[in-house]
TrEMBL record:
It holds the Pfam family Phage_gp49_66. The lineage of its organism: Bacteria, Pseudomonadati, Pseudomonadota, Gammaproteobacteria, Enterobacterales. This is Phage family protein. It comes from Salmonella enterica subsp. enterica serovar Typhi str. CT18. InterPro entries: Phage_gp49_66 (IPR025915).
Amino acid sequence: MTDMDIEKEIVTKGKTAARVTPERIESVILEEHYFTAYDGIRAANMGVNAAWAAHPSTDLLTFCVLVLENGFAVTGESACASPENFDPEIGRKIARQNAIAKIWPLEGYLLKQQLHEVK
């Protein structure tokens, strides 16, 4: 079940009190960046170590960095066990989902704090 499916069910059941929504999660994302571990290792060694090497599996580990509107950043990862199954687009989608999952508790805490302060 996707976040949007859950949101649809919440609305259908009339649960419309203050809550974090998928739209809210998307709205706080300012930037998103994707790279593999290999990309990161290569960039870290540019101009520093001409003889660097990285295991081929580092090209199967995809990272997503989401920078939120307040400057805080969350990361998500996707690791592919079989090189034959690696697909960059799928890796990015999974890494993004994993990063998004880290935003939910942050936004939940923020909403709860705001509701508490209104009391």
